[in-house]
Design brief:
- It is a single chain.
- By secondary structure, this protein is an alpha/beta fold.
- It is about 40% helix and about 15% strand.
- It has one domain: 3-Layer(aba) Sandwich (Rossmann fold), CATH 3.40.50.
Length: about 290
């Protein structure tokens, strides 16, 4: 299968390139220098030249504070950009696989969110991503929309300074006498490698629609940090941060746990417990990609 991956040099995009290539697919990596998602002509000409059977969109404006400060730009990229991809996918008869976020929910629920739960974003980022979902689902029939949560991977995330949460915790443990991490937000830390493999599996089906796609189980950020240090035998003086110690400029959901109900219903769920994904990632950091690929 010929697969075009938008955002191929990003945290998820890089692992998607590896996963589809390892599956034997003809992968066409596309970065921001190759395509302008907000320009329909750019999207059409870039993808028409490739003629992919599957378009995987991992690109987004996902720095929450920046989205809040620049809502027009956020909607142009995350909503209108997705609409452009969906239109072109339909025109060239390609399937669209679009990655969305847990931030489409308000975090007020106390049990994992399912695909049928009503979205209620708290910020511009969540609203712009939800609008992108609606475009993907309404403009082209053959689509997969995947909501995920708390991603980390081997490639740096530019929007977060190049370090994911795991790398940041290990760095701060070396530099500080004490670390304070919030215990009030609950997530499902998800490895981009696992998500990329799930994307390959899903792409082989014709079960089009909306899916939640995260590692199994959940933890607070404090519990995640604890597990990182325990697994790596890192000595760290870790403390729970006070509820108002790190006030967010933009409201975020306190509970971002998703249930992979759709994937499980089709017998397609490949995710393991988040602790297993973490161990795999840490092993990769220690031994290098080439030795574990």
């Amino acid at each position: 299968m010929r697969v075009a991956i938008i955002g191929a040099n990003g945290q998820l995009g890089a692992d998607a390139v590896r996963a589809f290539a390892s599956n034997g697919d003809d992968v066409c990596p596309i970065t921001h220098s190759d395509i302008e998602l907000t320009n329909i002509d750019s999207v059409f000409h870039s993808l028409r030249a490739i003629r992919p059977e599957l378009i995987v969109n991992t690109a987004a404006m996902h720095h929450v504070d920046h989205c809040e400060a620049e809502p027009v730009k956020a909607f142009a990229v995350n909503a209108s950009g997705t609409r452009n991809l969906a239109q072109v996918a339909g025109d060239i008869r390609a399937v669209l696989m679009h990655v969305s976020t847990d931030y489409v929910f308000d975090g007020c629920k106390e049990t994992p969110y399912e695909e049928t739960d009503l979205p209620r974003p708290l910020n511009v980022y969540g609203n712009s991503k939800l609008a992108g979902e609606y475009f993907a689902r309404s403009v082209t029939e053959k689509h997969f929309v995947l909501r995920t949560s708390a991603l980390y991977g081997t490639n740096g995330c530019r929007a977060k300074g190049g370090l994911n949460f795991i790398q940041l915790m290990l760095k701060l443990a070396r530099e500080r006498d004490e670390l304070r991490v919030v215990d009030s937000e609950r997530v499902s830390p998800t490895s981009t490698m696992e998500l990329a493999e799930q994307m390959v599996t899903l792409s082989r089906s014709d079960c089009y629609g909306l899916y939640h796609a995260t590692a199994e189980g959940s933890c607070s950020w404090f519990e995640f940090a604890q597990t990182i240090f325990t697994t790596t035998n890192t000595r760290a003086n870790l403390k729970v941060a006070a509820p108002d110690e790190f006030p967010a400029k933009v409201p975020r959901p306190k509970y971002s746990v998703l249930e992979n109900r759709g994937l499980k219903g089709h017998g397609l769920n490949r995710f393991q417990p988040w602790q297993t994904g973490l161990r795999g990632y840490l092993d990769l950091l220690t031994h290098g990609f080439a030795q574990t690929a």
